[in-house]
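Figure 3 (text version): structure tokens given as input.
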């Protein structure tokens, strides 16, 4: 597997630093989710990990080598990136899009091979996109389109997959569909997956490791059960909440405090949610 990490990383837009002196390693073979408030730098950090943004200072290392001093195709054979809101050329079919994932393996001497075709077919199958292979990407629904892009990253056949808000603009059922797919890829194939998510409860359900970004650095990181507390939510998201146990999965569940209609029967439950034994965090 590939080891992805940063050393004393500083990132900025113009004269404004977004990330400062940050050192972190993405756990191998695990699902890591970056969380944080809007504008905190989590997507910027992901872009830098993906070699889409050059550091002002410090470095991003892939297997101990600075990715900005590595050959592009070599990096692309180890790590795939799905940015937020990717756009395919008009008229491009799903099959044609997925084939783009094999570009890092093409050379003047080695053109399209049986291995390339096998991996494209595998990617279409595992994402359930085989029935849509000849359909135009821009004719797909939001969930289908996202699965098509994920199929392209799978055809790239990398140990590491980075995704920036892969569930944005999807309804609940399609969010679960995409996250279930990524979970299966991790559990069955051991892919290292790092992604940005906004939904804290889904982050806790699917992540092995959470990195909370705040004040240009890492506020805390670790297993959701260990780090997600009302204090973290207050400090990182500026929001009061209680942390309960997800009734289906037992993972931490964030319930925001705020205005809204409350059923009188739930008053006692709300108070119980503040009990430390239900928080599952230290």
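Below: residues designed for each position.
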């Amino acid at each position: 597997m590939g080891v992805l990490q940063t050393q004393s990383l500083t990132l900025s837009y113009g004269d404004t630093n977004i990330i400062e002196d940050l050192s972190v390693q993405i756990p191998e073979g695990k699902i890591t989710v970056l969380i944080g408030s809007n504008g905190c730098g989590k997507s910027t950090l992901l872009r830098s990990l993906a070699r889409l943004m050059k550091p002002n200072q410090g470095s991003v290392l892939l297997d101990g080598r600075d990715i900005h001093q590595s050959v592009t195709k070599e990096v692309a054979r180890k790590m795939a990136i799905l940015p937020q809101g990717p756009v395919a050329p008009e008229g491009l079919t799903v099959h044609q899009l997925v084939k783009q994932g094999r570009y890092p393996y093409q050379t003047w001497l080695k053109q399209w091979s049986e291995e390339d075709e096998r991996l494209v077919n595998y990617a279409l199958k595992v994402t359930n996109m085989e029935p849509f292979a000849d359909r135009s990407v821009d004719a797909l629904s939001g969930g289908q389109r996202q699965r098509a892009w994920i199929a392209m990253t799978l055809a790239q056949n990398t140990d590491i997959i980075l995704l920036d808000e892969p569930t944005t603009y999807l309804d609940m059922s399609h969010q679960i569909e995409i996250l279930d797919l990524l979970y299966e890829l991790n559990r069955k194939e051991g892919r290292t997956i790092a992604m940005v998510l906004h939904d804290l409860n889904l982050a806790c359900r699917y992540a092995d490791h959470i990195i909370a970004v705040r004040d240009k650095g890492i506020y805390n990181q670790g297993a959701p059960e260990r780090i997600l507390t009302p204090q973290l939510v207050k400090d990182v998201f500026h929001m009061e909440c209680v942390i309960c146990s997800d009734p289906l999965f037992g993972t931490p569940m964030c319930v925001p405090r705020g205005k809204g209609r409350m059923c009188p029967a739930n008053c006692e439950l709300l108070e119980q949610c503040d009990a430390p034994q239900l928080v599952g965090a230290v």
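Confidence is low (pLDDT under 50) at residues 274-282.
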